[in-house]
Every structure is written in C-alpha cells, then in structure tokens.
# Entry
Amino acid sequence: MRRLPHRSDFRLRLAFSDADGLPVSMAGVDIDLWFTTRPGGQAYFAAVRSGVCNRCEILDDGSLVVIFDGHRLAPGQLKAEINIHTDDETMPDGKRDINLKPAIPLELTDSPACPSPGRHQVDPQQPILVNVTIPISRPQLSHHVTLDEMDKAIKQAKEDLGKRIDEISTCGCEMATPAEIDAIAGMFS
# Structure
C-alpha cells in the first residue's frame, strides 16, 4: 500500500487489459470515473466523453491518467468506480456499460509528507500505476479484420460478380441460367 498526504495533488495511471491479459486502449472510449476515500464523503469525478478529457488524459499507449488537482478527498483508502461505455450491437440499446471497482493501492493520510520518500511514499511527480482488468474476452481472429473491411470486401465481390455476369452475357458464350445467377448472387447478400 502506498501513502500520500491527503492534501497533495497526484496522478493515477490506469492501464486496462481484457480477461486474456491483452492491453485495451481507452482511446475513443467514453468512460466515467468516481473516486472516494469514505462512504458518503467527498467524491472526485473524471471523465472522457466523445474524446474530450475532464481531469484526465489518454496516453499514446492507450492508458488513462487521472489528474487529482485540488481533489479535496479526506484521509483514507482510495476507492474507485469506473463505468466504461462502448458500442455493442448485440445489446438492445446498442451500448454496453461495464462497471468496474478495481483495488487502488493508495492510502491518503493525515500525516505530512516525509522529506525523503521511502519505499511506501509516493512521488507526486510520477503517476501511480494501477492495472485494471476488464472481465471480458475479445474473440480471437486469425486476421484482425474490422466489420467495415468485411463490408467493403463483400461489396467488391458483388461488383466483381456483376461485371463477370455482364461479360458472359455479352460474349455469346454458353451462360448460366437466371436461377443459377440468382443463386450465386445470393451467396454474397
């Protein structure tokens, strides 16, 4: 457990991973974060909405740094509640909300800072790293293909098929019956 005087400003870095231990970037994700040290006490709120960060920032590696500046939290064990809001077409409203309550190894204390930070003292200039696991697994694909890429490939295949059918019908060669053409085209719809 790390300790920090409760009136000190500090930074908390949250690195997210999925249930398989693979990193999950928070870039482009809406997220709400609440921090408290006592039930019913002062809460500190940070958020990312539509790419706009409030009291936080997204790093290049996809982790999220919460900036505790003038937080007014009382002494006690820091607790977090994180709500991640993602698009998910399998949900009736098209959104998936994931609620997490990760353990934060930081205690805000009533004592003043030590002149020389010891093993359990926090350097306020360095973010405190907390690894957060999102308890879901992503499907493993042999090729990382997006839905947009799959849609483009299907549209291209339909166009190519249409061109090939036109070539066959204009060359005077023996060609497939309309039912056969409809069956082939149906494979791509």
Observations:
- The two ends are 57 Å apart (CA to CA).
- Residues 147-186 form one domain.
